Structure formats: structure tokens, C-alpha cells
Amino acid sequence: WWHQYNMRKAFDPDSNLNHLPIPPGSFGLPFIGETIAWITQGANFNSSRRKKYGNVFTTSAISLPMVKVSGHEYVKQVLTGEHDLVTTIWPYTVRAILGMNGIVNSTGAIHKFKRKVAFKAFTRAMLNQYIPFMRHHSAKIVQQMQKSERPLVYPNMLRLTFDVGVNALLGLEITDQAKSDKLFQTFNQLVSNVFCIPHNIPGLGFNKRLLAVAIFSKNLVQKSLSFESIFQGMKARQQLLDLLQTHIEIKKKAEDDFELSDLAIKEMAIELMFAGYYTSASALTSATLELARHPEVFAKVEKELIDHGILREERSSADAETPDEEERKIDLQALHKLTYLDQVFKETLRIRPPVLGAYRRARKTFQIGDYRIPKGWTVIYNIRDTHEMEFKHMSEFNPENFAPTGNETKYRYIPFGGGPRMCIGQDYARTISKLAIIEMIRCNSGWKLANEKLPKMVSIPTLHPKDGLPVILEPRDKV
Ligand code: HEM
């Protein structure tokens, strides 16, 4: 009955593709679909189904029929089909808390325009301007970590990406530590309430759907779906909007027939903070984890820094007292020359992509491979699974995968997505990540994982170690 119900709904009277089969898979149990398996099996959910059904398969969660897609060919079709075949969808909480005026919730020409405006924050000139305070905040965080016996990497990296974002993306300079801490608290209240899984049980209001989800995922509900959370998120949103109102310096733009309202500018600023916060901290934490597990990679990065004059091989005590300007000078051009560090960053995002995949909704019935994706269905393109398919040895950390061989990685390597919605903050993320890794290595001759066992990874809101990744730092004497 449940299968028939879904199949009937998959029929699109306006389409001439109804003769094609829908992708193989299962709608699971009535109403709940395969939600329980999805939540409990983690990464195995996708890999077991891919093995059974192939790289495009049907599933269903909280009554939503969906198709999961992996591999460069299908992923490319979904990503480049934005605005035509598919459109973005975000959970209710994202729309309510981040607002509807930002980039992620816009479509069509307005989306394009907002991206163009936001890109102005990520030009080479702007990134070069951010470097001094990216370095300043990295140094501050590393020093802070050194004060602790077993500092937790993830929370520290979150704080780092927040502090840099406040300067770079909000344009605020907060020197009072108490004020900065308070803002951090407010921001966390906002972002920790943003995520939930999309759901749409016909005939049920939001609160009833909450109950439905609550039955299956107490943890998710506690984290992101309770009314209290939404309320707190909205409260934090208002506080941040009020703060930004007093600081708006960007003039309204009147280009391409569009105009940005004050609210749109403020929401875009908060959205950029949000988009760069968990993701960059995830990348940095994973890089720290891999560098601890691979001393030979650490040594190669260290050597590259020495070769480029960013780190001194051996510092005498006299050197230590006279700060070496050459050693400290880093700009975007200098960062680009650190090609091995770049390989390490790329490889980190290959085996541990912060964002595992993203959601779309089919705007019309369309064909993918030999199958039909019906209008209105949810489509998820899988980032982690695509990497698993397109590269050998998914779990083996090997920066040589990105040695300059000229191999084409477009749509095979997609940590930042692709097509019209490709991440606009990727150069910013790359810059802050490299600078923070450099600072970690400048100040520490190494670090070890404090726990013997590899940490359990959690994928919401982005991939991160459940235990926060405690490490034991080995500070250099003379830095
Ligand atoms: C390592 C860090 C990062 C990763 C892995 C990452 C990943 C991604 C991915 C996969 C997407 C595409 C989502 C989709 O297809 O719907 C995306 C979009 C986006 N990212 Fe990032 N991101 C990172 C850092 C940043 C930073 C630092 C910013 C801004 C400061 C940012 C801003 C955005 C925005 C605004 C979008 C939406 C683009 C649109 O809808 O047109 N991201 N990111």
C-alpha cells in the first residue's frame, strides 16, 4: 500500500517521462520510511544501498520520497541543473532563523545577484586584508590551547573561525573580551538551533511533525527541533540583527535592477558567518587529526614552511628575542606557493568532507541515467560517497592524491559543491585553514591525540569528532 501510494504520487501528468522507472530502492515503512536506518546506520546507510541498488537509489525519510545520487556523472547533472531541473530546499528552521533574504534561500536572478555582491568579500585584495587578523586570531587560539594540558581542538577552532568572521564578515572590531564572549554566546544560540531534517507529512502542522520526528530521534530534537530552540534561535537572530544595524557601513547597491535592503545585507552577513563557522572549524579539526596520525606528513609540511622561510629550522635564543620580519611575512601569494600544504588541505576535505551532501527539490520530472526523478521529490547529492567512488582508498590519508598530475577532478572531488550554488567562501576557508595550520606548526613541533582510540565522528551540523578531539601539544621552545 505504501509503495503504491508513493508510486501514484510519482506520476506527473505534465511529463512525458512517466514510462521510465524510478531509481531502485525502498520507501521503507509506512510514513517513517527508512528514517530509523538512516539515523542509526550513518555512513553505512548509503554504502550498503549503493552496493545493492547502484549510485542512484530511492529512499524515504519522514515520509518524503527521495533519491540519493553519487558519482561525478549524476552529481554534475544535479548541480548544473540548479534553477531548471532542481532548486534548493532548506529546513524550516534554516529559513526562520537565517531569514529568507540571504543567498541560500534565493533563487534565479536574485540568487545570482546576491552571490555577485557577496563575492566582493572574497576577492584577492580582501583576502589579503584579512590575513593579518586571521594570523592574529590563530596565534591567540594556539597560545590559549598551549595553556591547557589536553586542549580540545574542535571548540577552539570554532572560536577561531568565529573571531575571524566577526572581523572579516561582520566588519566589527571588538577589543573588549567580555563583549566578544557575549557575542559568541549569542551567535552560538543562533547557529546551534538552525539545523533539522526536512520533513513534510501531509496534513500535519509543524508541531505534529516535530512530534513525529521526536519519536525517532530524541537527540536531533533536543539539538535542533524543540520550540525552545526555535525561540532561542529567533531571539539570537534579533540580537545580531540589532547589533549589525548599528554597524552597517555597506551602501545599498543598485545594480542589475536589484537593490539590497538593510535586512538583506544583515541577513547575508549572518548567513556568511554561519556558512563559514562549522565548516571551516570542521576542516581545521580534521587536518589537526590527520597531522597527528601522520608524522611523515607533518614533517613534510614543516619542511615546506622552513624552505619558504615561514619557519626557522633551528632558532637560537638570540633569534627568539629579535622577531624575524621575514619569517612572519605571509600574504596570499606566499600561501599559494605552499603547494604541499595545499595538498594536505585538499586531502583532508576528500576523506573528511565537512558537508556530507546537500538537498535539492525536483522542479520538474527529469531523467537521470535510465531513471526518472518525479517532480517534487527530494534529491540529495552525496559528497562523501562521490569521493569514495571516485578515489581509491577512501579512508587512507594520502596528500599525494593531489600531487600536481593534471588529473581532472571536476565533479569527482566536490567538498565545496559545484555549479551555480558552489561555495562562495572556499578561498576564505582555504586561507584561514592554512594560516591556522601554519600557526599550529610554528608554535608546536608536533601534537598527539590524547585518546588512543580514534574519535567517533558526528555529521550534524558538519563533520566533527564527538569528543572535541583532545590533543597533547608539544610546544616549541623558542617561538
Ligand atoms: C571548509 C569549509 C567549507 C566547506 C567544506 C563548504 C562547503 C560548501 C558546500 C558543499 C556548499 C554547497 C551547498 C549546496 O550545494 O547546496 C556550500 C555553499 C555555500 N558556502 Fe560553503 N563551505 C565552506 C566554507 C564556507 C565559508 C568560509 C563561507 C563564507 C564565509 C561559505 C559560504 C557559503 C555560501 C554562502 C554557500 C551557499 C551558496 C549558494 O547557495 O549559492 N562557505 N559550501
CATH superfamily heading: Cytochrome P450
Q: Helix count? A: 20
Q: Could you tell me the mean pLDDT?
A: 85
Bound molecules: protoporphyrin IX containing FE
Number of strands: 13
Q: Could you say what the CATH topology is called?
A: Cytochrome p450
How would you sum up this structure, described in words?
- It is a single chain.
- The chain is an alpha+beta fold.
- It has one domain: Cytochrome p450 (Orthogonal Bundle).
- It is built from 20 helices and 13 strands.
- The protein has a five-stranded mixed beta sheet.
- β7 and β8 form a beta hairpin.
- α2 packs across α3 and α13 crosses α20.
- It is globular, with a radius of gyration of 23 Å.
- The protein starts with a helix and ends with a strand.
- About 8% of the residues have low confidence.
- Bound molecules: protoporphyrin IX containing FE.
- Protoporphyrin IX containing FE (HEM) binds next to α13 and α20.
- Its cofactor is heme.
- This is Cytochrome P450.
What is the compact description of this entry?
With 479 residues, the protein is α+β, with helices and mostly antiparallel strands. 51% of the residues lie in helices and 11% in strands.
Write the layout of secondary structure elements.
Layout: H1 2-9, H2 35-41, H3 43-53, E1 56-61, E2 64-69, H4 72-80, E3 86-88, H5 92-98, H6 108-119, H7 124-146, H8 153-168, H9 177-191, H10 206-216, H11 218-225, H12 227-245, E4 254-255, E5 258-259, H13 262-293, H14 295-307, H15 317-321, H16 325-328, H17 332-337, H18 339-351, E6 357-362, E7 366-368, E8 371-373, E9 378-382, H19 383-390, H20 426-443, E10 444-449, E11 457-458, E12 464-465, E13 471-475
Parallel strand pairs: 2-9
Antiparallel strand pairs: 1-2, 3-6, 4-5, 6-9, 7-8, 10-13, 11-12
Bound molecules: protoporphyrin IX containing FE.
Protoporphyrin IX containing FE is lined by residues 88, 103-104, 115, 169, 271-272, 275-276, 279-280, 283, 354-355, 358, 415-417, 421, 423-425, 428-429.
Keywords: Heme, Iron, Metal-binding, Monooxygenase, Oxidoreductase, Signal
Protein name: Cytochrome P450
Family: Belongs to the cytochrome P450 family.
